[in-house]
Each structure stands twice: as structure tokens, then as C-alpha cells.
Amino acid sequence: MLMNPNEILETIQMVRMEHLDIRTVTMGISLRDCSHPDIEVFNENIYEKITNRAKELVRTTNEIQSLYGIPIINKRISVTPIAVAAESCRSPDFVSIAKTMDEAAKDSQVDFIGGFSALVHKGATVGDLKLINSIPEALAGTEKVCSSVNVATTKTGINMDAVSLMGDIIKKTADLTAERDGIGCAKLVVFANAPEDNPFMAGAFHGIGEPECVINVGVSGPGVVNAAVSELENPNLTEISETIKKTAFKITRMGEMVGREVSRRLGVEFGILDLSLAPTPAIGDSVAAILEAMGLERCGAHGTTAALALLNDAVKKGGAMASSSVGGLSGAFIPVSEDAGMIEAVRAGALSLEKLEAMTSVCSVGLDMIAVPGNTPASTLSAIIADEMAIGVINKKTTAVRIIPAPGKGVGDSVEFGGLLGNAPIMQVSDFSSEIFVKRGGRIPAPIQSLTN
Amino acid sequence: MESSRFIITVIGSDRVGIVARITTVMANFNVNIVDISQTIMQSIFTMIMLAEAPQVNFDLAAFQEAMGTEGKSLGVEVKVQHEDAFRFMHRI
Predict the structure, then answer these.
(1) What's the pTM value of the predicted model, to 2 decimals?
(2) Is A64 within the bounds of a domain?
């Protein structure tokens, strides 16, 4: 036959049984030309621009889905950080901008819109502070809007004033969405070294160095990697690494093909392909399951960090070989609520917040979709963020915190967000106070780049 | 995407007339079979065809729907996917 039947069936199997999908096609749109002192005019400008640019996005993406028979789960939009685009607006807050973004996203029929964001790693402008202070109300009053704040980079260090502020903002966001277990916090990420071209939510925004309009694709497939590793008979770790690499290669090729075709049809530049193992609550579509397939009794057992390091590195190697456009976050995600294996591991007492923190030093992103008791003080949330930012800054990588202090809930309870966001058991945090440390403010200076021991 | 060639896979339990009925639908849409292979994998019937669609006046969505409907009435799963979906993944 002109094509190898086994290869054809392998691809079919990946989609049918192992949850291979294109997680998202995300269109990045610059809003830098929308500025206006009058926020009403600004809102009109951004609505016009977003709906215009994205008007064919969903239709085209659906066509490609059926052409190739590969599910494309989400269509999304990311925009210029609103704190930048709306800096010149004279209004006291930016809540109406979030509502306009929500409208534009609904009218464009996309699943999410990201970019209600500020970059304050060295300091905050007036617009940055307006934006950050608008976040709780903005996320409570919208459905599709996602927000992110970059508070640290390796080049500038950690802005502890911003870290301290974000603890309060997360608490307020949880309180304003208390009737839904604080779901607002599931749409809010605090970053170190945020990538400018990430298509994944909640952290997607259209960075300052990006073109006018761009297509970024996020491809996923923990289930495929899990199946490939599980099929090996008594492998050693070198063989496991090799298998993951090959599998990542195949998944990446699929994403690249879809991304290029979407961008060709829309006449929009192709940006990057983000190869991230993003789990879903479906059984088997789990990063924890891959680690367990490597031989750990439970994710969280000693050895988990090493196993995750192997996984993350092999994914990157396979991806980088398959496409010259790999970017974004590219690695393994470990969002607790979205991963059935992680949830099980927490419930079984195998996986703690401390272990997750260690794991984030070797994988992409960070403490993701973690629910903690509703009475956790803001200063403790800030301290958790500070720890995570330190890991990112020192290791020159992206780290993030997406944490939900679930109102009225304590350890032993769980929260239910539904859909891709899943459900999460409440995790224990330290009862000892970090208050004085967090409230000192100032900046933790940028780290030395030599003497790297 | 440059070619108009598709991989058609038929997966399900074997019975009389699968090939005949599926290829009839293809003929109705003027879709030509370039290559065909058929195996039984773990007692599941799988047929894979490389097919060429006409360059003009070809309605992919309608073809996919017709193939899907015919497959359903035969109790098999029929997928029509552009060949690039497989070529890209396994070939560089």
C-alpha cells in the first residue's frame, strides 16, 4: 500500500482511544492601536478589532477539524495585555473592558479570551494597578475572560509588592465567586517569566514583541504518552525516554500541520506550536498516570520529581525535533484538578503541596489548579506565590501559580468546577505565618547568572 | 494541503457487503480508490483506502456525512481524513 496501514491505525488509535487532540487554536490579536482616553471609545475599538480579526476563526478551525479528523477542543483569543493597551484610559477601573472582552469572545464563539493582564515584574504603572485592582470584579462578572499578572523575571527579580498585592486579589476574587467555589481564581494566573506566545489559558496574552495577529496552537496528549509507555515491556528509563520522545514527535507534527493550515486559510501568520502535556479529567489522559506507568506506586512518591524531569525533557526533545516553531510553555502540566491521577494521589495522601512545589522546578508552569482552605490568609497565598516565583527566577524558566482558596471549604472537602477544569480536593497549607516576610515589600533582586551551584 | 487525497478507514465487525456498499457511496461522489488494504485485527474488521476526490465540485462535508451514515447502517465506523493527517505524523 502507498501508506503503511499500521501507521494509519496508530494515528486512528491515538485519537479514538488515547485522547489525542489539538487542545487549542489561539489567535493572538494586538490591541495597541485601540488606545483612547475615553474608555467607552476604547471598548468600542477593541470589540471591533477582536470580532473583526476573529470572525472566521471558529468556522475555519471547525473545517480543519473535519478535514483531518483530529478534534480541536478549544478556540481562543489572546490580546495585548490590557494594562498596556488601556493605560491611557482615564476611568478609575477597567472592569468594563473585561465585560467588552467577554462580549467579543461570545460573539466570536470562542471558548476563552486571555489578556486581562499586567506585566509588573519590576514595578507597576498607574494602569497596571487599575487593572490588577479590577481583576476580582472583572472575573466575577465575566465567563470567558482570563487574567494573568507577571510579577517576576530572571532579569529583574521578584516584585514583592506585586506578590503581596496578588494574595489579596486572589482572596477577593474567590470571595466574589464564592457561590461557585471561587471559580474566578481558576481564571487567574500569577507568573514568573511569562511567555508572550502561550496559547494555553488562563495565562495566554499577546506579548509586546508579537506581530499584529498570529495563530498559536496548543497540542496535547498525555493519554498517548501514557499508552506508549504502558505498552513497553519491562523497559529501562533510557527506553522510556526514547519512547516519550518519539511519541512527542508525532503529536507535535500533528499540531504543526493543523496550525499551518489554519494560518494559511485565515491569511494570518503562524506563530508557535506549544507542545504541552495538558491532562484532562478523562481516565488515562493524565500526567500522573505517565509517572505511575514509569513505576511509581503513586504520583507524589519519592522519585516523582526525577520521573517528571525525564518526562518533561523527553517531551521537549521530541517536540523540538518535529517543529522549528516550538514555543509557549511546552512541557508537562501538572494541574491538580484537571488530572484524575493527581486528584487520586492527593486523596490517597501521596501528593502534597510541598511535593508539587518540588515538581514544578523540573516541569513546565507551576502550582496549577490547586484548591486550599478558604480561610488561608492572603499573606500565605502571597508566600506560596513568592516561593514559586523564586523557583522560576533562579531556574530561568516559567513558573506560575493558579490557586483557589475555596470559600467556606477546608481540608477533606473538595471543589467542583466542571468541564476541563475538573474537581479538586482541598490541600493542606502550612499554618505558620509568612505575614511579616510578605508585607516587607520591595524587590528580591535579580539572581547572579554565574556561580551556578 | 495540496492534494485532494483522503484516507478512508472502516472499522467494525465483519459482514457481507461492507466493501460494496461503502464503495458505492464513494462512486456516487466520484471518489476514486487509489489503493486499498483490508485486515482483521483482533477480530475487528479494518479496511483502509487511499482515495482521490475530484478537484472541483467536491463537497467534503456531504461526503463525510454520507459515508458516516452508510457506516452506521452497516454497524461500522467510517472515517474520512485528509492524507496529510497521517503523512505529517509519520514522515518527514
Answers:
(1) 0.92
(2) no
